[in-house]
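Appendix B. One record, verbatim.
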Amino acid sequence: EPHRRELLFVVERLAATRSRNADLAYVASSELEADLLVVQRSLVDAGATRQAYGDLQRLLWQVQSFGFHLAELELRQHSQVHAAALADIAAHGIDGELEPRTVEVLDTFRTVGTIQKRFGPDAARRYIVSFTQAPEHLAAVYELAELAYGGAENVPVIDAVPLFETFADLEASVDILQAALAFPQVQKRLAENGRRVEVMLGYSDSSKDVGPLSATLALDEAQRRITQWARDNDIVLTLFHGRGGALGRGGGPANRALLAQPPGSVDGRFKLTEQGEVIFARYGDPNIAARHIEQVVAATLLAGAPSVEEHNAQAAERFRPLAARLDEASRTHFHQLVRADGFPQWFAEVTPLEEVGMLPIGSRPARRGLSVSSLDDLRAIPWVFSWSQARINLAGWYGLGTALESVDDLAELRSAYQDWPLFATIIDNVEMSLAKTDERIAARYLALGDRDDLAQLVLDEMARTRRWVLAITDSDAILSRRRILGRAVQLRSPYVDALSLLQLRALRGLRTGDAPERDDDLRRLLLLTVNGVAAGVQNTG
């Protein structure tokens, strides 16, 4: 009865929290958790362990997982937007005539404070800084927050999370993190949260920057160095993987990717983005959702097992020279294509890039500028999505075939596939990507542009990559060893082929401009086929 009365009091306090009765309300969900723990410990002391660890434990887990907010809101902004806002404030003063974007940035910080007052700090405290390229980009978050609140004393809880996206950013990541440790705001948060730090890694822009193979190797090396930095500084590290559905954006089976992570980089904590068609595919059916979560949880636990960590560490050391050779050859060949004169304009001609930007999907514009004059202006998601629409999937494999051919040692490559989890994951993911390409349809898309030299580069690399993947896996045909996946792709392909040919017809009509009065109809047809191809191919980004 005393426990029942205590819980009735908890119920009253929860009701007061919902009705905002400040006299009785909980200030934070941690206070509710503390009350429930008192009841649980009392039950344990009284010998009522079944009651203590039954429904009461389930309720405790819910409080710990969801607090008063259910789902946490994370904020994300580009580092250059912060730099422009600070420059604007420096020029006009905090009370001056500021640019609308600067006002929006300041209002965002004020909204964070409002949310935290209502639902607690965990409701919205992570602030991700896209393209973190210097310590100052993290310092800008805290400086803007203080400007928004008129001083440091009123600022809500904020954890500035760096997002390292390009190859250069990954290379500089540890230096940036080390410099950020000196910030007083960071030191204060480390003292409050048990020295926990979150670091986000971008898979999309690094792949667009140096190619899929070099990006994967660079991300692996960056994780090793960041993990060592965390150990050296007594940091409890969580790596946040900004993966997409497409293989060019870090896609593929999450559990296999987990087991290939560098030693110590998981340590019971794994965070990743789930987006696009992946959400429906993995969580649209409760049974599939439960199975997927079980696989990820199991892999998270196994990744920290000494045997798995030791195997990954030994394999990485053994095949380090091979990784260096693959990286150099792959990156060189990738840059030969994407840095060729006129490549950005050619890419926009041979894929439905411009038309993809018209779809009412996505959180951001397809590009940062007004025209496709440079790949730097193109966002990574439409880069990957457009190649998949053209049935080329270039963002998932280009450069790998040349890299494997440069090694020219099938025995060593098969040994790496057998003993090096990271390499095995790369090869298997590329095999799945190649299964969804179609050389005949791809050639028709590439013919839309007046650059036979670039088209031949792509087709030759596709054939080369296919040949080496089959040799390494000792297979007669793509996905012949993975019958369920292979059969699924085989069943979908005829329908996707028909949609691709319709899309080609519409795209050719729009590119030639022979009948401008039909452009609206052709554009509508093309956008319908974009949806159909994405649904059929899957892993589109």
